[in-house]
Amino acid sequence: MVPNKGMNPNDPEFFELLVGSFRRLVGRPLVERDRGPEWLYGDAPFALLAHNTDADPVFVYANATAQKRFGYSWSEFTKLTSRLSAGPSEREERQALLDAVGRKGYMTRYRGLRVTKSGRRFWMEDGVVWQLRDERGRDFGQAAMFSKWTDL
After folding, report:
1. For residue 80, how many other CB atoms are within 10 A of its CB?
2. Is the pLDDT of residue 4 over 70?
């Protein structure tokens, strides 16, 4: 399953990549067993974003909570390079995190400054960032989940 910009947000294969890679790398479930792609996209109380493996990665997924938090629609998000989710002065720190995740597979308890479409800044807190890695060990990008945030 290679994520692409035209992907359906409820795609069952991408859902399996998200939840399967989280479970394998982080060691716990991302969602309860009875929750599916529709719940994750539309009803999950946490923000979930994912970007691809492009040299300048582009978001391929943002659930409804992430869309609301950042102020972008699905179609806007899936055209956005993920570095733009952080302000210019935070991009180096963000890239260091992503590089560490690439080496280690995941990071927990992440806190980082992010920026919305309107330019408002907020802290994403207690985040988990992980590799979108299938059961064969192939990487398809990275994902981030956070359920706490503080507006500045």
Report:
1. 20
2. no
